[in-house]
């Protein structure tokens, strides 16, 4: 979703990008800095594809220290990610036709069915090239704005 960073930013949303999503201490330092600058901010950590391995681990390690986590185009491990014991909100976003073999839609759907994790299923757009890259359904190609609008609407439900 870093490709779509500008679509997230608006008068109500500050976007911070990092390459340190797997490191809880580094993420807590970033969260502390954001909280100092924007005292009333609800902080959400978003990961896409391979980064969802990190967002799932962080969801357990820093649970309750952020408002929530968004896992988009998740790795197949999402099917076993039990969110019922977590305080921070959790959202799974997945394209129904994601053709990447390591991010099957059925895994996202399974998580929703077994653990009640909120699932936003996207359809439409276009796919070209590698199905695991940004310009496939995997990257919400052609429906980036609509996808981000749905994520932001879910975030606002908590405000």
How does this model look, in words?
With 159 residues, the chain is α/β, with parallel strands linked by helices. The chain has five helices and four strands, in the order ααβαββαβα. It has helices spanning 5-8, 24-37, 51-61, 105-115, 144-156; strands spanning 44-48, 68-72, 89-95, 118-122. The longest helix has 14 residues, at 24-37.
Keywords:
5 helices; 159 residues; alpha/beta; globular
Order of helices and strands: HHEHEEHEH
Query: What is the strand arrangement across the widest sheet?
Result: 1-2-3-4
Q: What percent of residues are in strands?
A: 5-15%
Which sheet architecture does the biggest sheet show?
4 strands, parallel
Question: Layout of SSEs?
Answer:
Blueprint (H helix, E strand, L loop, with lengths): L4 H4 L15 H14 L6 E5 L2 H11 L6 E5 L16 E7 L9 H11 L2 E5 L21 H13 L3
Would you kindly provide a brief summary of this structure?
The chain is α/β, with parallel strands linked by helices. It has helices at residues 5-8, 24-37, 51-61, 105-115, 144-156; strands spanning 44-48, 68-72, 89-95, 118-122. The two termini are 23 Å apart.
């Amino acid at each position: 979703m870093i490709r779509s960073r500008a679509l997230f930013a608006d008068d109500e949303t500050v976007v911070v990008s990092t390459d340190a999503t797997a490191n809880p201490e580094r993420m807590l330092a970033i969260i502390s800095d954001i909280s100092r600058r924007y005292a009333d901010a609800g902080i959400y950590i978003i990961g896409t594809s391979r980064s969802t391995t990190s967002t799932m681990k962080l969801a357990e390690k820093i649970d309750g220290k952020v408002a929530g986590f968004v896992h988009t185009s998740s790795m197949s491990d999402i099917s076993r990610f039990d969110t019922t014991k977590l305080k921070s909100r959790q959202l799974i976003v997945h394209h129904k036709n994601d053709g990447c073999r390591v991010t099957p839609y059925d895994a996202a759907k399974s998580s929703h069915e077994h653990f009640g994790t909120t699932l936003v299923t996207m359809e439409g757009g276009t796919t070209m090239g590698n199905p695991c890259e940004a310009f496939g359904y995997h990257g919400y190609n052609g429906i980036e704005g609509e996808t981000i609008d749905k994520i932001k609407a879910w975030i606002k439900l908590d405000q």
